[in-house]
Write a structure and sequence with these properties.
Radius of gyration: 17 Å
Number of strands: 0
Strand content: under 5%
Helix content: over 70%
Shape: elongated
């Protein structure tokens, strides 16, 4: 009976690690795309100055939002400092929801909160769970693993 419980736990743990990897890839790719569009003007994006002007933000905020997204995306993709990255992305998504998307309702096709809320919840899940075993974090010294 004991070995059955150990095996079930090992299977759950392995599935959890794969699920965390999938969430990190989904989050990392999306934030790299959007962050690079803001920070560098890649993928037809506005660049930080136009992004800030379009949203009536200070230009420095355009740079900070783009940098937060790109740096956090890289952290998510490699699986290092995932909790710190998740906090940064939660802040960015809260700003996006309340400053940009909420007046447009829920539907993403109308500029609503749907996508930003999904990304916020993915970041929150990663904040709670960490990077998982399939990550660079698993190779870091113990004091850094939890970041």
């Amino acid at each position: 009976m004991e070995s059955e419980h150990v095996e079930r736990f090992a299977n759950l743990s392995a599935r959890t690690d794969v699920a965390l990897l999938a969430l990190r890839i989904a989050s990392g790719l999306a934030f790299f795309y959007h962050g690079a569009a803001i920070l560098f003007g890649m993928f037809g994006g506005p660049g930080p100055e136009c992004f800030a002007i379009d949203h009536r933000f200070p230009v420095a905020l355009g740079y900070l939002i783009g940098l937060a997204q790109v740096a956090s995306a890289i952290a998510m993709l490699v699986g290092a400092f995932v909790r710190l990255a998740a906090v940064a992305l939660i802040v960015v998504m809260l700003g996006a929801i309340f400053l940009v998307h909420l007046p447009h309702g829920f539907d993403v096709s109308n500029g609503g909160v749907e996508y930003a809320l999904a990304q916020l919840l993915i970041a929150f899940a990663l904040l709670l769970m960490g990077a998982g075993s399939y990550s660079v974090a698993s190779q870091l010294p113990a004091p850094l693993k939890g970041l």
